[in-house]
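dumping this here before i forget
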Amino acid sequence: MASIELSAYLNVSRIQIIDAKNKNEAIEQTLKLLETNPAIADFNEVRHAIWEREEALPTGIGLGIGVPHVRCHSVLTPVAALTVVPGGVAYGAMDGENVRIILMIAMPEGEHKLYLEYLSRATLLFMIKEFRDALLGCKTPEDIWQVIQTQSPLHARMR
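structure:
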């Protein structure tokens, strides 16, 4: 079975380089990328679920990565958004490092296997220093999208 690509639920319109002063601003700016997405029937429910999940257990996984994620009835089809925060924000990550890359994942309630597969794939990919560095070196969302499309499949074959 082929590994799911990071690009599967992203597109360039849901990628942004942001200037956030703290974790709340960073998450809100990432959420904003999903606000008008047709994959989400009730944005306020998704927003609430993201914050509820974040308050229960912060999603800073280390290495400068935050992965806020939810499964929710208001999500009709899987969707993701990615932001790069060049200056980083304190996030309560496991390793204490500031978060500089945020991948927000919203999945339909019944998609547990797909949810875990995509979350796992993203986490494994972000563990690769060269991939993180390439994303952080980008100046535009289009550059980030190009890195995701070209580097992500190469690392999938290494699994």
